[in-house]
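User: Fold this; tokens only.

Assistant: Input:
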Amino acid sequence: MSLSTQIAKHLRDVHFGGNWCAVDLKATLADVTWQQATTNVHSLNSIYTLVFHNGYYLKLILRVMEGGPLEGNDKLSFQHPPLQSQEEWEALQAEIWANAERLAVLVEQLSDDQLLTHFSDGKYGNVSRTIGGFIEHTHYHLGQMRLIKKLVADLEIH
């Protein structure tokens, strides 16, 4: 298995399942309603905010991998429109699943040399490091989402 195929698999695993920690984004969000996703617990970000944030970076990386410019801002990654329905919540998730798969397909097509080229202007390291960092970032926020999901469920019980 090539390195690009392994990285693409790792990207798919965190989104769709099959990773060694047995936790993925799609399964975690499968039974979360839009009301639960927008529930704030203490001073934590909502599940919706974290999903939007992660999806923001996914779109940014995908744009660069498709030949576009690197245009993004950390502050903007947390500024989302209000979520007002289950349909909007499901549409956001569908966009993320589609984007994750598109990125995985692009990564699979890269040679080892391409994985080692600069991501955008080089400020962020090479392509492999950027994709690996994004996967780590997704796991980090996935852990937060799982904890917030449990806290929201506890609020609903009491």
